[in-house]
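[agent] plan:
  1. take the single chain provided in the ticket
  2. run structure prediction with default settings
  3. attach structure tokens to the ticket
  4. add a short note for the reviewer (M.T.)
[agent] executing step 1
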Amino acid sequence: MPLVFAGICSHAPGITGRTQLADPEHRERFYEAFERMRIAMEAANPDALVVVGAEHFGNFFMNNMPAFAMGMADYYEGPIEDENWLGIQHGRFPGNAELSKRLIMEVMQSVDVAYAEEWKFDHGIIVPLHFLTPARKRTIIPANINCQGPPLAPLHRAWAFGEALRHAADAVPERIAVIGTGGISHWPATPDSGKINEDWDRDFLDRWVRGDRDALLAYTDEGIYRDAGQGGFEIRTMIAISGLCAGNTGEIWCYQPIPIFAVGCTIGVMSLAG
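[agent] step 2 finished; step 3 output follows
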């Protein structure tokens, strides 16, 4: 079956952990866009949801940091963080090791990807799932792009990873949805936490909406770090979605800077018409 849904969303821990501190109008605008995404994804009736995230040293560390990894287990647990801090109750999420293996084998035809039979979800995956799969019944397949520990996965390889995921999704009989999660500009765990470069974010989202490969891959890590902070490295997950949907365009359903969430909160979907 072909890919049935693709989109991007933010995953900052403040989205669930600092709910009451945000401007109510801005917060609800973002939450409503998340609900719109949930409804759209449900309407596509996927058999599994692949979540391309940016893991934060919870499962992969500097002693073993793959550029790309995918989960291959029948269930996952999370959050790895304190549930009271994150505002999300700990629990299990269903996986499908056999389906994961088939997808991984297809991805491996063009991109070297590690696999993990154990994976504890941090906020990078579980915050989106809190909104998109609240019943925790949807089959989840986590994927990770190294956006944290240099040397980072090159941007063109993030695009190629998305292309490989598209080939894999189209090669299996199951209906596959894919989302990429990350910040745009943000400076987590630094004195600049809460800073948001709205102009930079909107320029990136314009490139993403257009599916402009050359423009998306024109960024340098030096420039990203200068203008979007270390959190900006997570654009790799969104670039992967552009590669997944190469030749198509996207639509931004929400971009709302919320400083107490430490990020410009984003929801976007890609057309699958091409």
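[agent] step 4 note for reviewer: The longest strand covers residues 250-258.
[agent] ticket updated
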